[in-house]
Amino acid sequence: MPSHIQDMDDSDSDGSVGLVELPDGRLICRRHGWTVCHYCGFDFSFMDELLEDPEERLERETNELYEQLSEEARAEIDARWGPPPSTRPNAQASSQANSQSNTGINARPRIIDTAASPEPDIFTIKRGTGRVFPAKFTPPSTTSTPGELFPAGIGRQAIPPVARFIRRDDPEQVLIYADGACLNNGQANPKAGWAFVFKPETNQPAGIVSARLEKKGPFGDEYTQTSNRAELRAILGALRFRHWEGEGFKTLVFATDSEYVAEGATTWVRGWVRNGWKTRTGAEVKNKDLWEMLLGEFERWDYWGFKIQFWRIPRILNVTADRAAKQAAEKEDLDEYSEIMGVLT
Fold this sequence. Notes:
Layout lengths: L5 E2 L11 E3 L5 E3 L6 E2 L4 E2 L10 H15 L2 H11 L22 E4 L2 E3 L11 E3 L8 E2 L9 H4 L2 E4 L6 E6 L2 E14 L7 E7 L10 E5 L14 H13 L11 E6 L2 H16 L13 H16 L3 E6 L6 H11 L9 E4 L3
Parallel strand pairs: 7-8, 9-16, 12-15, 15-16
Antiparallel strand pairs: 1-2, 2-3, 4-5, 6-17, 10-11, 11-12, 12-13, 13-14
Helix pairs in contact: 4-6
C-alpha cells in the first residue's frame, strides 16, 4: 500500500474488509479502493456528511430512514425499539441513510472452474466441490411466519445503515424472499424470470431485484428455461447481489416456496455430489451448472464465516417475489449470463 494512504484499521492488514483515508480526507474501501463498494457494503460518496458530528449524523439518518418506511413497518419498529431519537431520545433505535435504491451494476463475472482460491471474491464464479452445505432453517414454532420472525428492521452496522428483514431476537440474521417463475413451463417457447426481495417497502425504490432468466448458464452452455432453473437463479442472484456480511449480518435465511430449492440445497445435492452428479436412477442431474455454482457460493460465503439457511414457506407468504418473477418472465430474452450488483441499497 502506498505510503500516502492511511489505513484506518490496522487489524485489516490481512486484507479483510476495512477503510482507508486518502490525503484529501476522503474514505474508500480498503480492499477494492472504491468510494461506493457494493461488495463490502460501504458508501462514502457524500463525504461532507462525515464532517458532521457522528451522533448527529446517525440521528439524522435514522430519522430519514424511519420516515421512508411504510406505516406498518414504522409501527413494527416502534413496538420493538421505540421511534427514533428525535422523538424519544432514550429509545433504542437503528438508522439508514436517505439515498437508498435497488439500482445495480450489470456485470459479466470471471469464470474459474477450479475450486481452489486463496481469497474468494464476488467477481469470480467457481464450480463448488461440496465442501460446504447450507442448513435448513428451523422456526421456533410450526406456525411461525417470516413476517413475524423477520419484521422490518434497520441494520446499523452497514455504512450507511440499511433497511432489511431482520430477525426479531437476533440482529445478525437477515431474511430474503426468493422465487422463480416460468410461462409455458414444460411446453413450447418457455419464458422464465426470477426475483428476490431483500428489504421492506420504503418511499425509495422497492427492495426487489428481478430479471429474465438467461438462455445460457454461467459457464456458457445453453439450457431450456424452466421454473426450477429460475428458482435457483433467484438464489444465486441474491447471493451475488451484495456482500451481506459487510452489513453486519452473520446468517442469511432464504424464504422460498420451492421444494426443489429448499430440499435440493440442504439434502439432495449431498447425494448428487457423492454419486458423481447422478440421481438415484442413474440419470444426469438437471441444472447441474447452477447447482455447482451454488455450491461455489456456499464455499465463498463460508470463507467469510457467513451461514446460509433455507426456509420453505407457503406460496401465499411469498407473493411479492412470486409476482416480480412472473413479471420478469415477460421481459425481453437474455442470451448471455450476467449479474446485478447492488450499489445504493
